[in-house]
Amino acid sequence: MEIRQLREDDFEERTALSQFAFQYRLTPEQKESKRLTFRPEQDWGAFDENGRLLSALLLLPLETWIQGKSFAMGGIAGVATWPEARRQGCVNQLLVRALETMKNNGQTVSMLHPFSFSFYRRYGYEMTVERKKYTIETRQLPPRTQTPGQVKRMAKPDIEVLNGIYSAYASRYSGTLVREKDWWENRILTKGGQVAVYYNEHDVAEGYVFYQVEGNMLTIQDWASTSETSRVGLWTFVGNHDSMVAEVTTITAIDDPLPFLLADPRIKQEVIPYFMSRIVDAEAFVKQYPWMPGEREEAVVLTLSDAHAPWNNGAFRLMLSASGEGRLERLEGIAAESSGGLKCDIQTLTAMLIGNRKPSLLREVGRISGGSTEDAAQLERRIPERTTHLMDFF
């Protein structure tokens, strides 16, 4: 089996595999449009001895917000295998090569949308993003409230304005994407619908809603608000559609407080497990990660296991400065053998540092072993709390 990046002449095979695996059919016009945007260097394939494509995945060069800081991220997407090639290790080899590539590219974290959480947990990924979906009858919408600003519809969406609002909003979470201009053009605004922006009394844009009305349903496709007045103003704007629609649907961050703020909080709510993440290079990630400051320099011994990225395996001393800088010092020989301390796999480290899961909980449920309660508490004090969210899909 050969693992390599795709070439221009692999387009037909890759397209056929994707259409089969994800059950869609491109028109001739759509296929030619897709050919123009085909970037073979982002696609990796497993080929048999005759050069036939067996399996493939897409490795997207993206960035994600983590603790208010942007991290280079490898987005895994479009994983597909022909039925006759399944259970032959194709995806295993592709993912291992992808991890090596991400490490070499300085992408210290990876994210994906799983077809199966249990499948990707075997490769070190862990669920980090959950979302809430609301279905709200118009009679249950927030009351229309006068605000000092105003909402203006954008006949032609201004990406610079929208991205300024989005970046301020998205950076408050961990797991959200850093959106580039082409992402807005090709992933967001192609959905169709209306864009409306809330401007405060000084004509500064503080929030937007991107929505579509179809039948008697208003669907909010993208929302960002950076102040309470913009949140109220945008919901008032949505409420002004009450004569046209019977329900409003939207997807929000898991910590969204809307039900608490409603006069009738008995709206339909669904919690949706969404995306998984994985630390690719623990040493580089820890160095970049913004830890909580402390009273003094502290150290925690941590033994990591990673079945598919061997560079993460081993015993480390996690050094945390008083100012919030961290580094992993690898322990060798006798020091490693007698290190003690906390022990966990790469999934659990990801859950702690990206997924907002507390070390005390992870130790209680058996995901962390060894060490002491104080070791876990010390680590917990130095990990900032930040809700995860992701408004995009790939």
TrEMBL record:
Positions of the N-acetyltransferase domain: 1-142
Keywords noted in UniProt: Transferase
UniProt keyword Transferase present: yes
Gene Ontology molecular function terms on file: aminoglycoside N-acetyltransferase activity
GO biological process terms held by the UniProt record: aminoglycoside antibiotic catabolic process
Cited InterPro entries: Acetyltransf_17, Acetyltransferase_Eis, Acyl_CoA_acyltransferase, Eis_dom, GNAT_dom, SCP2_sterol-bd_dom_sf
PANTHER family for the chain: N-ACETYLTRANSFERASE EIS
The protein's name in its UniProt record: GNAT family N-acetyltransferase
Organism, as annotated: Cohnella luojiensis
Origin organism lineage: Bacteria, Bacillati, Bacillota, Bacilli, Bacillales
